[in-house]
Amino acid sequence: MESEVKNQTEMIRQLVSEILDDVESQMLREMRMLRPQMKLIAEKAAATLKEALKGHVPDGRLELLDKLPNDFMYFVDGAVRKVIKLLYFDIEEKIDMAHNFLEIPEVLKSPLPEEVKKVLAEWWMWYDERFALPSGAFLHDGGLRVCVTYNTARLSIICAEWCLGKGKTNCKECENYIDADHVAAHAIKHLQMLLDDYNIKYDRADFMLRHTKYVCTDVAFKRTSTVYRN
């Protein structure tokens, strides 16, 4: 069964990759047909800037604006590729999370012990108002794994773009700007505090699945006659 799920996941991932490759090619083809108009707009913008800055900026610096049209076209192509890549990472994350990973409102409808439901509902009300990172839970017989997740590959692209946009040469500085791991850990810590209040045992259980990081807590409760979704 596990092998079948894995093969199906890989097949879906490959299909998504092929479709997005076709979409990217199509977008770039259509945008290249618009290149003359787009380049003309960029040339007019460069000429306007040069005229406005003349006498205020050294002539050598003004000549850099002559490169603006080509830079703009390069940026447009790069933006298309970046958007497609981010879209793929987002879809890939959802594919990874599709099997047995339930959204919290769905988990709350499951036959969990009342004290666990109460904690989870309280945490979800707090979390849902504050954070955008995906969250959910793996439900199994005798326990519950609650996770906050993020796509590391997607964040690395955003991080690099922010860093390069700031003219940085050492992009490690952006780790303080986009620190999803800190946010996820903070959210899970809040859940653990609520579990402590209700004297419910738990363990930290983080793991990686391809590009997706899962920051999790395993919530323990007594086994019942109910067979939970595996």
What is the topology?
Elements: H1 2-33, H2 35-53, H3 59-62, H4 68-97, E1 101-102, H5 104-107, H6 114-128, E2 135-140, E3 143-151, H7 152-165, H8 180-197, E4 202-204, E5 207-209, E6 212-220
Antiparallel strand pairs: 1-2, 2-3, 3-6, 4-6, 5-6
Describe what is shown at a glance:
With 230 residues, this protein is α+β, with helices and mostly antiparallel strands. It folds into two domains: 1-99, no CATH class; 101-230, no CATH class.
Describe this structure as you would to a colleague.
The protein has two domains: 99 residues, no CATH class; 130 residues, no CATH class. 59% of the residues lie in helices and 14% in strands. The protein contains eight helices and six strands. Helix 1 packs antiparallel against helix 4, helix 2 crosses helix 4 and helix 6 runs antiparallel to helix 8.
Notable traits:
59% helix, 14% strand, six-stranded antiparallel sheet, 8 helices, alpha+beta, disordered C terminus, 230 residues
